[in-house]
Design a protein that fits this description.
This protein folds into two domains: 2-149, no CATH class; 155-238. A four-stranded antiparallel sheet has the order 3-2-1-4, covered by helices on one side. It contains nine helices and six strands. With 243 residues, the protein is of the alpha+beta class.
C-alpha cells in the first residue's frame, strides 16, 4: 500500500510539474512577444490550447494534433519590419530562460524540506529549459529554441533560412493570399536540412497554385515526394496541398 501511494504521488507530481512547467515555458515566449508589441496568437500545453476564436474572442479548447502537445507559445508581429527577426530571436530565448528561472525559484522551497512534488517543480522546469537551449536538439517542427536563436545570430545561410520560415509564417497570418518571397524560398530549398527544403518547395507550390502554373505545381510536388520520407511528420502534416 505504501509503495502504491509513493508511485501515485510521483506520477501525480510529475504530471502537475510538467504541465505547470509547460505553461511557464510557453508563457515566456508569449510574454516576450507581447512586451515587444506583438499580438498573442496561440498557447498549447498538453491537450489544452488558448486561441482566438472566429468571433475574435479568446477561447480555451482541445488541441487535436498530438504532435503539438509538447507545447507551443507564440505572439506574432502586427506589421512587417526588419526588426522582427531580432525580436523573434529574443522571444525564442524567453521560454527556456523563464523555465530555468522558475525552477530555481521553486528550488528555494527545498530548504524547507525535500518532497517529491517540490523536487519535481524544481528540476523539471530547469531540465526543460536546458533541453530547449541545446542547439543540437530538435523539438516540434524545427530546431530547439536555442538552436534557432544561434542560427539567427550566426548570420549568413542559417539566418536566411530562419528568416525565410519566419516571414512565410507571418505572411500566412497577415495575408493568406499573398505571394511567398522567392528569395526566401530559394534559401529554404537550398538548405542542408530536408525540413527546410520541404517547406521551401511547399511555399513554391502555393505560389504556383496562385499562378495556376500546373507544370510548376507538379515539379514542386515531385520534389516534396522525393524527400518526404526523411522529413518530420510534424512538417509534412502542416503542408496541406489541395489542387
Amino acid at each position: 500500500m505504501e509503495v502504491m501511494k509513493t508511485v501515485l504521488e510521483c506520477i501525480g507530481s510529475w504530471i502537475v510539474a510538467y504541465f505547470v512547467s509547460g505553461i511557464v515555458h510557453e508563457g515566456g515566449h508569449v510574454v516576450a512577444g507581447l512586451a515587444q508589441g506583438w499580438k498573442f496568437e496561440l498557447l498549447v500545453v498538453g491537450p489544452l490550447k488558448l486561441y482566438w476564436g472566429e468571433n475574435g474572442k479568446l477561447r480555451l479548447g482541445i488541441e487535436k494534433n498530438i504532435l503539438l502537445w509538447c507545447g507551443i507559445g507564440g505572439a506574432a508581429p502586427t506589421e512587417q519590419s526588419e526588426a522582427n527577426l531580432k525580436k523573434f530571436a529574443r522571444t525564442l530565448l524567453a521560454g527556456p530562460l523563464a523555465s530555468i528561472l522558475f525552477g530555481m525559484l521553486c528550488g528555494i522551497s527545498l530548504f524547507w524540506g525535500v518532497t517529491v512534488f517540490r523536487a519535481m517543480m524544481t528540476f523539471i522546469p530547469i531540465g526543460m529549459g536546458f533541453f530547449c537551449l541545446n542547439p543540437k536538439t530538435k523539438t516540434g517542427i524545427l530546431y530547439s529554441d536555442g538552436g534557432r536563436f544561434l542560427r539567427i545570430m550566426k548570420g549568413g545561410k542559417t539566418a536566411e533560412e530562419e528568416k525565410a520560415v519566419f516571414e512565410a509564417g507571418f505572411l500566412e497570418k497577415m495575408n493568406p493570399n499573398g505571394r511567398y518571397d522567392e528569395q526566401g524560398i530559394q534559401a529554404m530549398t537550398s538548405s542542408d536540412d530536408v525540413a527546410f527544403q520541404f517547406l521551401g518547395h511547399y511555399y513554391a507550390w502555393l505560389n504556383a497554385k496562385k499562378d495556376q502554373n500546373e507544370e510548376e505545381m507538379k515539379l514542386r510536388r515531385g520534389n516534396m515526394e522525393q524527400i518526404k520520407k526523411d522529413v518530420p511528420k510534424a512538417v509534412t502534416d502542416m503542408c496541406v496541398m489541395e489542387d
